[in-house]
From TrEMBL:
Family matches, as InterPro entries: Biofilm_reg_signaling, EAL_dom, EAL_sf, GGDEF_dom, Nucleotide_cyclase, PAC, PAS, PAS-assoc_C
EAL domain boundaries: 566-817
Enzyme kind, highest EC tier: hydrolase
Record EC number: 3.1.4.52
Ranges where the GGDEF domain occurs: 423-557
Protein name per the record: cyclic-guanylate-specific phosphodiesterase
Required cofactor names: Mg(2+)
Family matches, as PROSITE patterns: EAL, GGDEF, PAC, PAS
Domain PAS: 143-213, 272-312
Keywords, comma-separated and alphabetical: c-di-GMP, Coiled coil
Taxonomic lineage from the root: Bacteria, Pseudomonadati, Pseudomonadota, Gammaproteobacteria, Alteromonadales
Length: 817
């Protein structure tokens, strides 16, 4: 496009001419010019009814469907296109001339106008060139350099064709490249020099440059050279126009772009390789902005190329890696130019997945980073396979339990812990009795099903910290970290044996009952390493099998006996409630000064028909462990209330009856309701009840204690802190607790007044209680000396053998009024 301004008055003149024609010929006239994008757009229009839409497209679209059209191209003198003059005939029914006459007339007028416009364009062009040469000046004759010499010095191909398309000027490079002599090229046209297709291509490009009136870049073409196989040329073509606007020909300048082309081809090749790659490829600029993606990028990430261009790769971050990980990555990338490793990233759908990534930095000629290239593969499937393989390596495929290898590693780890902690650890070897018969009778498939069911049952019976492994056909091992006490182990063993209580289904209709023999070894007594402990547990199991099946044995014989005693106790305790083997005794609590009865503590007694009397100090902790304490505690509370009601009915005054409440009981959310219910059912007044709650429970969860005890206190029940001084009380919580009494633990009373520590503690408890506005009672008082000291120290109440042992109600008449 020639960039010469058409003055306003010239436009007006043209407008007037076009207006005139539209009136004479009853047509619409449009003068369109070529804009910067080489598109025609309307500059002048006339004869339109509605001129609002004065764009070329709007006008021509509106009228060309129905109109005859006259169009003449308007050219600059150099033959570059200036625009187009068009007239669209409007049908006139009342006119004498037919449409053909009108068209002829319009054509003549249009031609005249177009010639006139082109004359003015030529003048404008001349003026422009004149001005331009004035401004730029010209090389003086004396400075003229031989043109041929000048162009021969260039490596590029330089040539000029005249207006007929003949080569009139060209340099040596052209001759060399075309493999022709000067004479062979001079004054020849493209048709004469090249094959038809190529010549046609060259001529078309010339025409384009002429029409545009400016330099164009003609398409690349493959050159020929005697010494070089193949090379690429890019030709710039520019029309040569004299000052008065006459076209003199076309100049061409071809440069070798083989190197550029090679790079481009390389890039295209890489692109195609990347594109078809099963790996994802992402290229960012040095600021981390994504500039290209290739290959399986979208398949892997779920994002399309367009969605990520311009974004930062942090958009894929899974949040699984910490700062140190990325620091390491960047250090590798910036210092070594490469980082290779696994990264967890996030897909578009939010799922995170592992990638194996190679990151490389690409440097520019200046040695600075220009791009970062990430080539990655999705290794989710590989990871899953690895995990499955690892799982298979460490687990029994049938039951999915840890296998021997995992068990051994686990034992070693727990042993280190036990050594460090100075704690015990137990291993229980379980062997299903007569399992071979199951396989022989029902087949191995059924045998497998039973083993899976057994594995599930054993898993349900073991603790969360314990490890259950299957180490052979019908052999299982349980590792109890921290376990080792015979009592604890007995409990654990009886839980494991519960797994065998229910029969196992065999097929749809049959059932079998299984038993197992178990052997126990305990660290450190029965072995210091995993191998020895396992071997000794196995040996113990063999002994259990020999004794009788469905039995267990400890590697250390005495532990077996001890454990069996525990087991007996546990079994008997289970029966005690049902068989009515519990009863309560009551120990009076007296006012220290007046020695009048202020209440009685209800204390549980268990008399087993076979085992005899068993102390609550022994069976209460077992009841807590085997979960019987709640049922027993409810029984005690109900029995004490019933006794109180009996005394009330007998008209006896007894103060309050105090009942011991175990931590586990009160921790249940239903405890408060249960107390209310028992009071309701028995008719025992809340004001006559006292609950003794241990200090350790109150401080284990003081918030809950405050909440629950407040409800009980509000009912009128008195609350005392039992065993005070044995735990760690927070004074902050103590003052918030709705308690009435502190009970000095008998361990502090025992050596009073000889033991300076105990006397100090007793005194401190009394002072603390009084400071908190609480009553203080001393228990376990056996001697006058103890009584005197405590009384003198200000203790409010007393309880102990000195006054009365815990006794049956009938024996307590002297303490009832
Ligand atoms: N949760 C429940 N715990 C209960 C219940 N009944 C008893 N217990 C707790 O069992 C522990 C042992 O109790 P026990 O053998 O009954 O001993 C109590 C008294 O007999 C004993 N005592 C009383 N006076 C003296 C004495 O002068 N000397 C002496 N050596 N012992 C004496 O002290 C025990 C009272 O304990 P305490 O509860 O701390 O007041 C014991 O911890 C009971 O709490 C029950 O029903 N539920």
């Amino acid at each position: 496009m020639i960039d010469i301004n058409v003055p306003q008055d010239t436009w007006l003149k043209w407008q007037a001419s076009i207006d005139l024609i539209t009136r004479i010929s009853h047509c619409v006239g449009v003068l369109s010019v070529v804009d910067a994008e080489n598109q025609l757009c309307a500059k002048i229009s006339a004869g339109l009814k509605d001129e609002d839409t004065a764009s070329y497209e709007a006008i021509s679209l509106n009228i060309k469907e129905t109109s005859e059209r006259v169009s003449i191209a308007l050219l600059w003198p150099s033959k570059a296109i200036f625009g187009e003059l068009s007239f669209y005939l409007i049908e006139q029914t009342d006119k004498a001339e037919g449409p053909t006459d009108c068209l002829v007339q319009t054509k003549q007028l249009a031609r005249l106008t177009a010639d006139n416009i082109e004359l003015q364009l030529a003048e404008l062009y001349r003026q422009y060139r004149c001005q331009e040469s004035q401004v730029r000046g010209r090389v003086s004759n004396g400075d003229v350099i031989d043109l041929q010499l000048f162009i021969d010095s260039l490596k590029e191909h330089v040539w000029m064709k005249d207006i007929e398309g003949r080569y009139v000027i060209f340099n040596r490079s052209v001759e060399k490249s075309w493999g022709k002599t000067r004479e062979e090229i001079m004054n020849k046209t493209d048709e004469e020099l090249f094959v038809a297709d190529l010549a046609e291509e060259f001529i078309q490009a010339d025409t384009e440059a002429i029409n545009k009136g400016e330099q164009i870049t003609a398409g690349e073409c493959e050159g020929q050279h005697a010494e070089i196989d193949r090379y690429w040329l890019e030709t710039a073509k520019v029309p040569v126009v004299t000052d008065d606007g006459c076209l003199k020909g076309v100049i061409g300048l071809s440069r070798n772009i083989s190197q550029h082309k090679a790079v481009q081809e390389q890039l295209e090749l890489s692109g195609r390789v990347f594109e078809n790659s099963v790996e994802g490829v992402m290229i960012t600029d040095r600021d981390g902005k994504i500039i290209e993606t290739y290959g399986a990028f979208s398949e892997i990430t779920g994002y399309s190329r367009e969605e990520v261009l311009g974004k930062n790769p942090s958009m894929f971050s899974s949040g699984r890696h910490d700062k140190a990980f990325y620091d390491d990555l960047w250090t590798g990338l910036l210092h070594k130019g490469r980082w290779h490793g696994e990264i967890w990233n996030r897909r578009k759908n939010g799922a995170i997945f592992p990638q194996l990534v190679t990151l490389s930095s690409m440097l520019g000629d200046d040695g600075l980073v220009r791009y970062f290239v990430a080539v990655f593969t999705d290794i989710s499937a590989q990871k899953k396979n690895e995990e499955q393989l690892a799982h298979l390596a460490y687990h029994d495929p049938l039951t999915n339990l840890p296998n021997r290898m995992t068990l051994t590693a686990q034992i070693e780890q727990e042993l280190r812990h036990a050594q460090y902690q100075g704690s015990q650890l137990a291993i229980v070897f379980i062997d299903v009795d007569l399992f071979k018969q199951i396989n022989d009778s029902f087949g191995h498939l059924m045998g497998d099903e039973i083993l899976v069911e057994l594995a599930n049952r054993l898993t349900a019976q073991k603790g969360a910290e314990d490890t259950l492994a299957r180490i052979g056909g019908d052999e299982f091992v349980v590792l109890f970290p921290g376990g080792g006490g015979s009592e604890e182990l007995t409990l654990a063993l009886s839980k494991l044996r519960e797994a065998f209580e229910q029969p196992f289904s065999v097929g749809e209709n049959d059932q079998v009952r299984l038993t197992a023999s178990m052997g126990v070894s305990v660290y450190p007594h029965d072995g210091k390493d995993g191998y020895t402990l396992l071997r000794n547990a196995d040996a113990a199991k063999h002994r259990a099998k020999q004794d009788s099946r469905n039995s267990y044995a400890f590697y250390t014989e005495s532990l077996t006996l001890e454990s069996r005693e525990h087991l007996k106790l546990q079994s008997a305790l289970h029966m005690a409630l049902e068989e009515g083997n519990f009863h309560l005794v009551y120990q009076p609590k007296l006012n220290f000064n007046s020695l009048k009865t202020v209440g009685f503590e209800a204390l549980l007694r268990w008399r087993d028909p076979v085992l005899g009397d068993i102390s609550p100090g022994v069976f209460i902790p077992i009841a807590e462990k085997i979960g019987l304490i709640n049922a027993i505690g409810s029984w005690v509370l109900r029995a004490a209330c019933l006794q109180g009601v009996k005394w009330i009915e007998q008209g006896k005054t007894f103060g309050r009856i105090a009942v011991n409440i175990a931590g586990q009981q009160i921790k249940r959310s239903s405890f408060v309701e249960e107390v209310k219910q028992i009071l309701n059912e028995t008719g025992f007044p809340a004001q006559s009840l006292e609950l003794e709650v241990t200090e350790s429970f109150m401080m284990s969860d003081p918030e809950v204690a405050i909440r629950d005890l407040r409800v009980l206190g509000d009912l009128g029940i008195e609350l005392s802190v039992d065993d005070f001084g044995t735990g760690y009380s927070s004074l902050n919580y103590l003052k918030k607790l709705p308690i009435h009494k502190l009970k000095i633990d008998q361990s502090f009373v025992r050596d009073i007044p000889s033991d300076a520590n105990n006397t100090a503690i007793a005194k401190a408890v009394i002072a603390l209680g009084h400071a908190l506005n609480l009553q203080v009672i001393a228990e376990g008082v056996e001697t006058e000396e103890q009584a005197d000291f405590l009384r003198e120290s200000g203790c409010d109440e007393v309880q102990g053998y000195l006054y009365s042992r815990p006794q049956l109600p009938e024996a307590l008449q002297q303490f009832l009024y």
